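Input.
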Amino acid sequence: MSARKHLLRLLPALLWLGVMLTLSSVSLKGLALEGLDKLAHMAEYLVLSVLVVAGLHQGGVRRLFLRVLAAVPIMALVAAADELHQVWIPGRGADVLDFAADAAGIVLGAGLVLAIVWWRGRGGDG
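Output.
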């Protein structure tokens, strides 16, 4: 598959990442998100993970699993960088629990796509 086709397969994930990073650059002063913020963090990274892993899917579940093993740490680094950059946003800050929610979303999203791919192929590599 050409580099252009790979990029096109990942375009939805890249667009979603742009939306996420734009939203994380906005001040949340005055917004009451207590209790919902961790769920929002998990949901946004779950969506990112589903889009990335679906974009990487080509071949069987074993090949996808190996790609997921590389993609999950990269997505976790993005989440960590996102948390750190929020230190400079008024009304925002870096939070380890936010990162934990991000990581949970990443793992859940990747696991969801892997499970669907496995279920569709019944664990085969076809």
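Residues 60-126 form one domain.
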